[in-house]
Every structure is written in C-alpha cells, then in structure tokens.
Design brief:
By secondary structure, the protein is mainly α. It contains 9 helices and 3 strands, in the order E-H-H-H-H-H-H-H-E-E-H-H.
Length: 236
C-alpha cells in the first residue's frame, strides 16, 4: 500500500521535515559519487551491531564508533530505499512537526532513530552487516501519527493483482496494518535465522522505531488533541 496524501494540514509552517529530506537526498547523491568505494563507506559509517556491542570498539574514534549512531539514518542503499522513506516522511512528518514544534520534532526524530538502532542491534547482536537508512526514524513518525491522528484519512494506492485501487483509509487502519506487517516480518527473521536483517531489511528497527514514537506520544496527553476542523481537507 502506498499513501498518496492525508487530510490533515500541518498546524504550522514546517521546515525541519524538509531539511531532513534534503539531508537524506544530499547524502545519497554523495554516495553515488563514491563508486566502488561505497561498500567500504557503508561498513565504516553504517551501524554495525557487532561493533556497537564490542567493548573494545568503544576505544575507536568518534567518527568510527559514535558517528554511525547518527550517520546511518541518512544513508540509503538505493533509489527505491530513499524514495520510499522520504515519501512516507513527506506525507506524515509535517503533522508531527506541526504538533511538536521545530526543535522538539528534530529531537523526536533522532530519538526514534536511536531507539530503532537499539532494536536492530538487540535482534542480531553478532551481525556484521551495516544497518543504513532512515526507516527506523520514519517508523517513529508513523507511530506518533497513529497516536495523534488515528481518525485522519489517508488516500492510499492499493495494488490488487493487476488492478489498482484508490482507497480512503483511516490512519489507524493504514498505520496499524503497516506496523503489524513489520512485526510479523521481523518475527519471521528471528525464527528463521536467529535475528538480524536476513533479507536485507532491518525489520526490528522498524518495529522499535514505531513503538518508540507511539509510546512517546501516548505519554504526552497534552499533545493528543484532535486536529482543528479547519485543518482537515478532502483527500481526493
């Protein structure tokens, strides 16, 4: 399912969300310039679970040990990986920034990214595969949206075999289904191969980020107010 737009306008002009998108795109364009050096770049700047949990590795420089905790959120493995993450961030992130404010939204986004990284590291602590991508942080945005705007409407493209349907789904349905799919795929990874991203997708980073974003908003009841009616629009 592909979200096309929601029916909630942001409560303020957003710029952090666009800045995050721009940084991700800029980082990807830099990756394209690396050519055959790209795999080594990912190994150095991606988040490697086995390196994170290796006490000896913490004697390494900031660039090689602490740097990847942030940098991995801005790296992507291909155009589809980048576009998918940035599209979801574009659709849902503006409303979270509008509700939280600019600086708090930035901290929230990075915090969800850290929570996602922790979830992936714990699911495969011996893995030497570098984790890259904004998916975990974006998943936190989705979890927050689910809590704050469960009754929002999301115009969704749903491919059914050779047919394409455009459905207007409640956010609780779209995002609830998305979250459950990440959990089931992550569970299949754990059962099948003992954790980690065996199919190249860090499912438990998605789950951890989604849960972190939802719990953060659930713990802030003052933020859980309905969107003003004048902020709501038709999605078709």
């Amino acid at each position: 399912m592909i979200p096309l737009r929601d029916n909630i306008e942001a409560e303020r002009r957003v710029w952090v969300n666009w800045l995050l998108i721009a940084l991700n795109v800029a980082a990807f364009l830099y990756e394209l310039s690396l050519g055959p050096l790209l795999p080594a770049f990912f190994q150095d700047h991606g988040l490697v679970p086995a390196r994170v949990l290796n006490a000896h590795a913490w004697s390494m420089s900031f660039e090689h040990q602490l740097g990847p905790l942030v940098l991995h959120m801005f790296l992507h493995g291909g155009w589809l990986h980048l576009i998918g993450n940035m599209w979801f961030l574009h659709i849902f992130g503006d409303n979270i920034e509008g509700r939280l404010g600019h600086f708090d939204y930035l901290l929230f986004y990075l915090g969800c990214g850290f929570a996602a990284a922790a979830g992936q590291v714990l699911s495969g602590p011996e893995s030497f595969t570098p984790m890259i991508g904004a998916s975990g942080a974006v998943a936190g945005v989705l979890g927050a949206y689910l809590v704050l705007f469960p009754r929002a409407r999301v115009l969704t493209l749903v491919p059914i075999f050779i047919f394409i349907q455009f459905l207007e789904l409640p956010a609780v349905v779209f995002l609830g289904f998305w979250g459950l799919m990440q959990f089931f795929r992550g569970t299949a990874d754990l059962v099948g191969a003992g954790g980690g991203a065996t199919d190249g997708v860090a499912w438990w980073a998605h789950v951890a980020g989604f849960v972190a974003g939802a719990l953060f908003m659930w713990a802030r009841p003052a933020l859980r107010r309905p969107a003003p009616r004048w902020r709501q629009r038709y999605v078709r």
